[in-house]
């Protein structure tokens, strides 16, 4: 992961996993060079890019709609926008599968699985829409931060009209 703010590199981090630990190597403006090992298995690595937020749906699943499940995770920052620390920080994220609904974003209209994400107990949940068996990110809204991020374009890699061939 690499974070640039206002045109200046804040830092970069590299994460890898073994069956019993999370490892992080980072170089940041605030902390310098760090090496970490967090013992224990985690189900999700949340590094703040929206595609990562979509992947938490895979850790939660779609069973027991309405039930919040606590997902043991590692994040790079406890900040709302994920812009600080850039090291391995343990966090348990409350994730509730809400159900299916149709959602329209700039990339089109999709049948989505809908989730609520609670990163901190004192924060209101965000709402996440993902599509398909790979939990493709569609939309994330969070009134607490004013965030409303939506998928702008969706394409496959098959055929000459795919994203790989588009100008």
Q: What's the short story on this structure?
A:
The strands form two sheets. Strands 5-6-7-8-9-10-11 form a seven-stranded mixed beta sheet, covered by helices on one side. A four-stranded antiparallel beta sheet has the order 1-2-3-4, with no helix packed on it.
Instruction: Tell how many strands the DSSP assignment holds.
Output: 11
Q: Report the principal-axis shape.
A: globular
Rg, please? 17 Å
The percent range for helix content is under 10%
Percentage of residues in strands: over 45%
What's the number of helices?
Answer: 1
- Structural class of the helix and strand makeup? mainly beta
Q: Order of strands across the biggest sheet?
A: 5-6-7-8-9-10-11
Element-level helix/strand string: EEEEEHEEEEEE
The overall average pLDDT, rounded, is: 88
Q: Name the poorly predicted regions.
A: none
Distance between the termini: 27 Å
Largest sheet: 7 strands, mixed
Structure description:
The longest helix is centred in the first third of the chain and has 11 residues, at 50-60. The protein has one helix at residues 50-60; strands at residues 2-5, 8-18, 21-28, 32-39, 44-46, 68-75, 89-105, 108-118, 126-131, 136-142, 147-150. The strands form 2 sheets. The protein has a 7-stranded mixed beta sheet, with helices on one face. It has a 4-stranded antiparallel beta sheet with strand order 1-2-3-4, with no helix packed on it. By secondary structure, the protein is mainly β. Strand 5, helix 1 (50-60) and strand 6 form a beta-alpha-beta unit. The chain is globular. The model has no long low-confidence stretch (mean pLDDT 88).
């Amino acid at each position: 992961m690499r974070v640039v703010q206002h045109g200046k590199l804040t830092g970069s981090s590299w994460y890898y996993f073994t069956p019993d630990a999370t490892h992080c190597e980072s170089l940041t403006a605030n902390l310098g060079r760090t090496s970490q090992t967090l013992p224990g298995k985690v189900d999700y690595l949340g590094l703040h890019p929206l595609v990562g937020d979509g992947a938490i749906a895979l850790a939660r699943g779609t069973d027991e709609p309405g039930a919040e499940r606590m997902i043991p995770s590692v994040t790079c920052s406890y900040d709302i926008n994920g812009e600080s620390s850039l090291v391995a920080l343990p966090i348990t994220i409350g994730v509730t599968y809400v159900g299916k609904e149709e959602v329209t974003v700039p990339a089109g209209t999709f049948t989505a699985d809908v989730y609520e994400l609670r990163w901190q107990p004192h924060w209101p949940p965000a709402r996440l829409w993902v599509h398909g068996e790979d939990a493709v990110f569609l939309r994330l809204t969070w009134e607490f931060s004013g965030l409303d991020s939506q998928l702008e374009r969706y394409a496959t890699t098959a055929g000459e009209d795919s994203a790989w061939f588009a100008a």
